[in-house]
Amino acid sequence: MYLLKTISKETAHGDQKEIFDWFEDKPINTPPSLQRYAISPSIAKFHLDLIRYFSSHKTLNFALLSSIRYAIASKVCYDSCIAINETILKRSGMTDEDLKAVASTQQDTPLEEHEEALLQFAVTRVLHPEQGCTQEQLQDLYQLGWTEQDLFDVTYHGYTLLSGSQLTASLSTAG
Fold it and tell me: Which of 96, 114, 130, 158 is spaced 20 to 30 A from 121 at the CA atom?
């Protein structure tokens, strides 16, 4: 159980309220992580700005980014993130079988081949940084059409989720 106060739509004001307002016309509710971050309005606004950035990314689409979050969250048991991204992915047409493939980062996900490669890259970079990365791996992704910015952005996106998971766990009761 998370031990710090969580901000609700009803108690939000100023920058906190902006977070809830932004999700008003979206197909999902305000993510639990942002409700927790809202205790610190500047940090919450920073995360909302990240969401806005990724929501309008010119090459990384919503299904790919949701798949990256879902795969990482599944591997680190970040339940609230698993739930919200499962909802997003099911609304985009994925089945339970598709979700299993995404969670295990298998090659038979409903993503395009070049997206699957980027999914695997992001998950590996975030969950196994000790493995490093090779120039050949980068070249393979460049040949699929990805840019250095895309590689940086998906890795950063994954680390943002991982840090949220660890932050939540560190401020929750054990177990």
Answer: 96
